[in-house]
Design brief:
The protein is mainly α and 329 residues long. It has 2 domains: 189 residues, no CATH class; 85 residues, no CATH class. The protein starts with a helix and ends in a 15-residue tail after the last helix. Helix 2 runs antiparallel to helix 6 and helix 9 packs antiparallel against helix 10. The longest helix is centred in the middle third of the chain and has 53 residues.
Length: 329
């Protein structure tokens, strides 16, 4: 009973602080290992949910609305934006002074412009970019926002601990009780807030990793299946490559592999292309170039689709007609 309790406490500690150090049991197949890892992150997410992650998320939503409405209605939106722009310009100026290359300077200026635009979006939508997906529409990976925010709150939590310790020491040395108590109480409240912020961020990251691991595993299995089912076509393409054929040249590849149906389609395309060229030759040179480029690109796209379908039919392979699904966030 005691050993079981100690084991649960140890496992909970690992889930909270060292989830990546949890060992995968030996003897599992790759699919079972993937399922185990995904299950660990799901368990971590459930643990953070029990610690109040979802409830705190609702609090953040209400707090953001109240904060931005206060800034807009009490302080004034124009005044806030003006102050923010000035503060950003001062910060940008300091960074530019330290920059050593032109590329670095351009990046700093771009970041400054983006920060100003993002502030206006946040004021308009009454949502923080650090907590809501979609506020920063240029963000490639929203989890980077979460990780950055987590580091900020961890730093604040350390500062809370240091100041609270100082308050206790001052109180023990006989400092005035009221200011020490107020300052210490404030550190306890803000420390709890920082803890909940970190808990909420860990909850999001754990859910994302559980989902990401599962989707990556499915994609890898799909690619492996596609590869296994198309050995004949892959062998032919490998043979063409070894013979010096440019694999980006559709005509050369078809001629080398010898797919009759694809050759017929290619001949039909060449005839259609010549017909299009004859029609467009009656127009002005500038108009001719634009029309021909568009027409050729469109015809080439249609041809490529038809060739792919015929190649799949002749080689009896589902590879080119059944591509793996794209990952979605």
């Amino acid at each position: 009973m005691k050993n079981n309790l100690i084991g649960k406490i140890k496992h909970t500690y690992e889930l909270l602080f060292h989830v990546d150090d949890i060992e995968i049991p030996k003897g599992l197949t790759p699919e079972e290992q993937e399922k185990f890892v995904s299950g660990i992150y799901k368990e971590k997410a459930r643990l953070h949910e029990k610690l109040g992650a979802k409830k705190f998320q609702r609090f953040i939503e209400g707090f953001d609305r109240a904060k931005y409405r206060f800034l807009k209605n009490v302080i004034g939106e124009e005044r806030v934006i003006k102050y923010y722009d000035k503060a950003t310009d001062r910060y940008t100026k300091k960074k530019l002074e330290k920059a050593t290359t032109e590329q670095e300077r351009k990046k700093i200026i771009e970041q400054s412009k983006r920060a100003k635009a993002l502030m206006r979006i946040q004021m308009k939508e009454e949502r923080s970019a650090n907590y809501y997906v979609g506020v920063d529409r240029r963000a490639v990976d929203f989890s980077e926002y979460i990780k950055y925010n987590k580091r900020v709150h961890q730093g604040c939590l350390k500062r809370n601990g240091i100041i609270l310790t100082g308050c206790i020491a001052l109180g023990a040395l006989g400092a005035p009780l009221l200011p020490v108590t107020l300052l210490g109480g404030y550190q306890i409240i803000t420390g709890f807030k920082n803890l909940q912020c970190i808990n909420n961020q860990e909850y999001y990251l754990a859910r994302e990793k559980a989902s990401k691991k599962r989707l990556e595993s499915r994609k890898l299995r799909s690619l492996k299946k596609t590869y296994d089912e198309n050995q004949n076509l892959i062998s032919e393409l490998q043979r063409a490559k070894e013979a010096g054929i440019d694999l980006y040249d559709i005509k050369a590849v078809i001629d080398f592999i010898g797919l009759n149906a694809a050759k017929e389609l290619l001949a039909a395309f060449e005839a259609e292309r010549k017909n299009q060229a004859a029609i467009t030759s009656k127009h002005k040179q500038s108009e001719q170039e634009g029309t021909k480029t568009t027409s050729d690109a469109s015809s080439n796209s249609v041809l490529a689709d038809k060739i792919v379908e015929r190649m799949a039919t002749e080689s009896k392979s589902p590879m080119v007609t059944e591509a793996p699904k794209q990952l979605r966030r």
